[in-house]
């Protein structure tokens, strides 16, 4: 849409003339801490299933509740503007976690160490760059296109803040509400629901994972006539909550992709390959000897990678008109704001942004750091690509967030496009081979995080626009929140990887391979649970070929013989340690895709036939009128991850179908019904499930190294004594506690007639 010079007349909840406490220390600190918590839980989710959901509403509800509790013990009541600052600072963690989770593990998959300095640099630089690039476009995206860009989650968050407004804020807004009014009771109930969901998700996960009271994954493998077909689900509260929030359509489309992989492609490969007497590349063993997971790893993953890449590119192409209009509007808005700055000495409080000169200085400073930061392996061309793609996709992300919401914004598609263009440019320049892997991935990672944070920033600014916040103070808050979250998410990412790392004895995987240890300089010791049984120091060797054993990182003795293959916790292949204990791995589906793109283009190593099969899956879907990105992500992910998301989507469909028949919903259009569902009690409980379950998963993973004996003891007890954990009926019995939290979600989501 062309730039409209006449913005709509929107009256904010708090007028521009009102002066209320806003950017206070307590609001900023609380938002920053909550951002770290939700950033950590989002990182856990993106490593498991490649998805996150917006943290804005949960952070807002928690802030409202904590400030309310502080008032009861003698503190000052908060204002709606303080609550807005808290949710703004707290929302940055989720977007940075997504960007880090879909890109940084690819460095390890490509054979490089996941260095803490590199991860933190990428998080900090990408997060700050996205916010700064969004600031000049605020008026265009948020104010002038208010009617066109709804920012559904930002609008819903504003409604939550207004519903819980304190007496001071209501007086400033010209409202009067009794403390015992229905609105006040509803605000207290909403807080109780999300905190109750948080506690229940946390308790469920501890009982399930730590105490082994029931299995965390149920799976059923079929025999003929659907030989090697399988269906299963990870029965966790966080995936159930994700499905409820993203809704039935996207959830079912994702699960449909998993059904294609596990109930069509894998059985079909087994059917045609069982009689073969030689391995079929890129597989290294006979198909008849492969398990369903082996077939997936050898063939279906490449099909899924091609499908996701094609789906991301098609999504990008479909967005090109939006990109162009957003760029034109953004540039026009910059010029317009500059003109106003010279004509108006004192702009209204609600129109004040960080001055453009500081935005430009900040962007140039970030680009300079990117260029000369040694851990990024960057060059001038790479820095310029970050500047161009960063601005381009920050604009796209902001606009798409306005149209479909933050949780549905295809950030990974933009990262795929950035990597493709970057790698193709490197190919033309003759920059191929391993030394350019990190450069290309650093470009993609920083752009991905910048685009993700730009969408989140625009959503927060929309919330502030509706409630009457000062944009400049919101921008300061999200800069602080982004910086703090970026600094803490790097160590958490490394700790999650370390907790799932298995040191596989080299005699098991590469028995006859040796190397020249005198040429190796890096050394390391075992980390995590296995370190207790081996305190030796080894040299590190990155094996780049598959001769005699798999490629990867090996620990080498002084005489050149191999001691261990280091199988990482993220995207690792070995799920059992030498002592027999089980290890939970993180699939990191989108990071694997990034590594395939880089290696495939720069080294010509992709099995292109399988990749093109995946591309055709996306093309057929688009020809049939189905948006392919969600389906193709489902093709790539394990069905055990997408099926519980579908269950959450089905519950949302049942709840909405029933609620939409109530009198208070009569006369609402489809979009208004959707918005009402997005801020309903069911959505709050689902948000609590996500936060509690994911946070418990992180704590359990981080403490794995110090609780090995306890974990082993619980495993032995459960396998010997617990029918919910082991035995012929354990899969069916384990569904019972999961069914209980599903029923609770349905019951809480149902509204009363008003």
Task: Sum this structure up briefly.
64% of the residues lie in helices and 5% in strands.
Structure explained in plain terms:
This protein has 754 residues and is mainly alpha-helical. It has 27 helices and seven strands. It has a five-stranded antiparallel beta sheet. Strand 1 and strand 2 form a beta hairpin. Helix 3 packs antiparallel against helix 17 and helix 9 runs parallel beside helix 25. The N terminus is likely disordered.
Element layout with pairings:
Layout: H1 25-49, H2 56-72, H3 80-103, H4 105-109, H5 116-134, H6 138-144, H7 152-163, H8 167-173, H9 182-210, E1 217-221, E2 230-234, H10 237-246, H11 248-273, H12 292-318, H13 320-343, H14 356-372, H15 380-404, H16 411-429, H17 437-467, H18 471-499, E3 502-505, H19 506-509, E4 523-525, E5 537-543, E6 552-556, E7 562-567, H20 589-603, H21 608-623, H22 628-636, H23 639-659, H24 670-678, H25 681-702, H26 708-721, H27 730-749
Antiparallel strand pairs: 1-2, 3-7, 4-5, 5-6, 6-7
Helix pairs in contact: 1-3, 1-18, 1-25, 2-3, 2-7, 2-9, 3-5, 3-17, 3-18, 5-14, 5-15, 5-17, 5-18, 6-13, 6-17, 7-17, 9-25, 10-23, 10-25, 11-12, 11-22, 11-23, 12-16, 12-20, 12-21, 12-22, 13-15, 14-15, 15-16, 15-17, 16-17, 16-20, 17-18, 21-22, 23-27, 25-27
Transmembrane segments: 27-47, 53-70, 91-112, 118-137, 191-211, 246-265, 298-317, 354-373, 380-398, 410-429, 436-456, 476-494, 608-629, 635-655, 683-704, 724-748
Pfam families: OPT
Protein name: Oligopeptide transporter, OPT family
